[in-house]
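Subject: sequence -> structure tokens, single chain

Hey, anyone have a minute? Need the predicted structure for the following. Not urgent.
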Amino acid sequence: MLKFKNLLCCTMSVILMLSLMSCSVVEKLNSHYEGDLVIDHTENVSVSETVIKALENNDADAIKNLFSVRAKDLCPDLDEGIGYMLSIYEGEFVEVTQNNSSSNKYSSGGERCIVSPVCVFKTTENYYKLTWNAWTINEKDKEKEGVYSMKLQIWPDAGLDQGGEDLFVAGVVYPANSEESDMAFTLWKNIYQQKNHDDRIERFRELLFDNMLASGVTDDEIDRFFDYCQPMRELHEGWTEIDDGNITVYITSMKNDTPICFCFRLDKEQTDKISFLKFAEIDDEKTIVDYNLSEENAGIYLPD
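Reply:
Had a minute. Here:
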């Protein structure tokens, strides 16, 4: 487990840089957009102000109302996550010490854009760091517009922070669900970089052998897995489902021009162990519930 956590530290920090090609200086954001794609970054300040006010007033509904329809549909423990945010907030608000943002334009003629702001603020008791991902524009799916993922944590000081968190799992990231979120990014980071650096391939092999249940996974199966996921694009969305104690994490993306879903399950008895990894081709017109992505046996599964 310690080896896995060490790997998390070195792999999570640059995932969004690789998959979303972000720019983390607010003043330079406008130059990164083409055509009619315009982002009103006052929305970022509005979100942070709303959250701070809600924390002050112990108002869970005000925070929940910031989340998109899609995030609410996909997050089984949104209320618990918001409850955690309220529980760690102490003191009275004093000031915001930092307010930065990065923005990322997605494909298809600028029809989709996600922002990843960070706000550090001070109360009479602590400093706090608030980070979130939000779809500010999504002409393809209006239900995604709004906050998708959020995290609040006690921060050591008012010092300058260089960016947000690697968030993508719908809802609030808090201690009860952080392990699967971390595992998702570790897997994705190693997949995404696998053809750029041979050592990433080897690290991913080690991660699978160290963190998968005994399943007889062979080197050949791992090679086919990497060959299949070679032409990857940006992350689209991610979420978790809990069924009979099993936690399954889903990530949607694109392979060439085909939408795909990458999923893995954490074993309910050994929550730091992966029981299966699976790639499946999906249809934009359908939802994930239309597909049977579950597997009874441990292993790696690819489309026929």
